[in-house]
Amino acid sequence: MSMDYATEKVRENGNGVELPSTQRLIPFENKEHSPESYEDMQLDYSPLLFSSLERYLPPNMLNLPRDRKVHFLSDILTRYSPQGEHTRVQKHRTYRQKILSNYEPRHKELYTMNAANFFVPSFLKAISENSEESFRSIMAEPTAGVYTFEMFQPKFCEMLMAEVESMERWVHDQRFHIICPNTMNKYGVVLDDFGLETMLNKLMEGYICPLSRVFFPEVGGLTLDSHHGFVVEYGVNRDIELGFHVDDSEVTLNVCLGEQFYGGDLFFRGVRCDKHVNTETQSEEVFDYAHIPGQAVLHRGCHRHGARATVSGHRVNLVIWCRSTVFRELKKHQNDFSSWCGDCQREKKERQRLSVAATKLELLKRNGISAS
Ligand SMILES: O=C(O)CCC(=O)C(=O)O
Ligand SMILES: [Fe+2]
After folding, report:
1. Which fold has domain 106-268+284-324?
2. Where does the Fe2OG dioxygenase domain lie (predicted)?
């Protein structure tokens, strides 16, 4: 089975460049500082990016006026972006503005987080208790690192599907050319592009982060700071299946919204780091999951998976790829991921086994020598 990296179109070809030492962010997040909101400002990059980066400002800059901080951070971001990337960011901004100023939402209530109306009570209770015990009380972990639980109210799922239908009708009527959810799914919409970014960010911060902090701390679950939120659709005249891949995320939330369908099972095949992404699957890593409307699946982005053919009916899933800038940066400086990669773990065990064997042999030899 060959492996694909599912990516979001606009993130392809990102490169980094070295910054002059005079203009640097500090290497560790200042957790005591509460960042300001930049949502009301006209910016070249996501306002959320400015809020996340604020915690990395040199201490003497933290209390400067917002426009000074924006200036400093934009300068850094522009240096990081090769011209192509910068143009892409600008184009994407214009693209979103075009949608936002023309598309009339069908269910405005979806665009603001309303926990009591969105989530089922058991989920809300577990989140408010905020402990591993409370999370486990509403979850199953059918295979290591895959958590399933009831999350959304049926009304929310119906409204979101109706909203997506209305977005698609608008796209069709306007003959608007939309960006696909990612490089693999051709049917569906990027919810962030249609004005749901703020709501989905609240969903990530308030309702995914508490879980990822407990279940996925070693892959950036402690520091999720951005997301890519989209809906994918399968069935007749849509995508049929989804090939074997890893997500462009640290943690993925995948919720089946509906409707009626046969097939479409998710298949999981073990967690891997970039180096081992194409290695063989071990029998204990094989796990298949049948989607149930309203049920969420939470897994690491690097847990290799795909979706089997939806053989009849229509399947609609909400997918949120959650990312951590800090984790991605740290990953560049490491090469042993044995705390989560199945093959790094196997390699480490093998190294330990060889080392124990070598030590035993050495001891035997020494004993042999001293015995003679
Ligand atoms: O169709 C599904 O449920 C899987 C979707 C998925 O894996 C993805 O979009 O990354
Ligand atoms: Fe995926």
Report:
1. Jelly Rolls (2.60.120)
2. 225-324
